[in-house]
Amino acid sequence: MENGEGLVNSLTWIITIAVLAAILLPQMFKILREYERAVVFRLGKFQKTKGPGLIFLIPFIDKIERVDLRVLTINVDKQEVITKDNVTVNVDAITFFRVIDAEQAVIQVEQYIHATSMLAQTTLRSIVGQVELDELLAEREKVNKNIQEIIDRQTDPWGIKVVSVEVRDVVLPENMKRAMARQAETERDRRAKVINAEGEYQAAERLVDAAKMIQTAPAALQLRFLQTMNDVAEENTSFVFMPIPLDFIDAFRGLGGDKPIISPSAKSKGDGGGEEEN
Predict the structure, then answer these.
(1) At what angle are helices 219-234 and 174-216 packed, to 10 degrees?
(2) Of 125, 141, 143, which Cα lies nearest the Cα of 83?
(3) What 3-state DSSP class applies to 17?
(4) Going by C-beta distance under 8 Å and a sequence separation of 6 or more, which residues neighbour residue 213?
(5) Residue ranges per domain, the chain?
(6) Minimal CA–CA distance to 61: which of 43, 74, 77, 76?
(7) Which CATH superfamily does the domain covering 72-172 fall into?
(8) I need a surface site. Which of 10, 33, 188, 276 has the fewest CB within 10 A?
(9) Sign of the C-alpha dihedral computed for residues 243, 246, 249 and 251 taken in this order
(10) CA 57 to CA 51: how far, in whole Å?
């Protein structure tokens, strides 16, 4: 009987120790990953920041808050914003941040992820409302930088570093899209007309230069005439149009001398006047 009672007592102690170990050991030892830190509170008072690896705690006295030091991502929900030039747009963004001081992130703010998300939303609305639509579309990097600097400055006391903020999408109303399309089309037409006028001006300049060069060397005009004849002869045509140079006509005019040409009617009139005198 005594042996049986001793065995029962031994089993009781073993079971009791096993239960206490199962309860106490998880409270005494914690394993933290490389990117985790544990903010330890002893009887409600901040003790220290521990980790990574195996850490020792006093059971039921020490409490910890795990903090992830990796870069976290917050998706700022799409919201309707009125820009500085009174255009309604829907914008959303992505915020990248990380905890650099686990103690401040736990003690200074209740939920640092939620607080950073709300701050990113309000800052996005504020910055977009201060810029015009053209600046929002053309200078996206500048807008992102302004949002990032403002959020980072306000989250710095929380031990949080905002890595970057990216405005992901800007949705415009349909009437604004059509107006911008018309504006772009008009701008392209204007550029085409300017380029065409510039080409005409340059061509006119070159023609004037060519005329001056031909004027100083008359043989160049004859060569140009022969080249034109050669180009026309290469085509499969049944006729050839040959312009006559003005110099060729002037040569025939010189054959009559300075004597004016008298018409037949004027000549007969002169003869009649002589007979009356006789």
Answers:
(1) 120
(2) 125
(3) helix
(4) 220
(5) 23-67, 72-172
(6) 43
(7) Band 7 domain (3.30.479.30)
(8) 276
(9) negative
(10) 12
The set of long-range contacts for 60-64, using a CB threshold of 8 Å and a minimum separation of 24, is 60/27, 64/30, 64/38, 64/39, 64/40
Question: Quick one: tokens of 21?
Answer: 């170990």
Which strand (E) or helix (H) includes residue 270?
Answer: helix 264-277
Q: What DSSP assignment string belongs to 157-215?
A: GGTEEEEEEEEEEEEPPHHHHHHHHHHHHHHHHHHHHHHHHHHHHHHHHHHHHHHHHHH
Question: Which residue bears the tokens 């001056």?
Answer: 212
For the cut 60, the answer to whether the pLDDT of residue 94 exceeds it is yes
Phi-psi region of 43 (alpha: psi -120 to 50; beta: other; left: phi over 0): left
Q: Which is nearest to 96 in space by CA: 111, 67, 116, 81?
A: 116
Under DSSP, the state recorded for 254 is G
Q: Which helix (H) or strand (E) holds 104?
A: helix 102-107
Q: For 68-78, what is each residue's pLDDT tens digit?
A: 999 999 998 88
**Mean pLDDT of all residues belonging to the chain:** 82
The answer for residues whose C-beta is within 8 angstroms of residue 220's C-beta and 6 or more apart is 213, 214
Cα–Cα distance measured from residue 152 to residue 132, given in angstroms and rounded to the nearest whole number: 24
Give the confidence band of 245 by pLDDT, cuts at 50, 70, 90. low
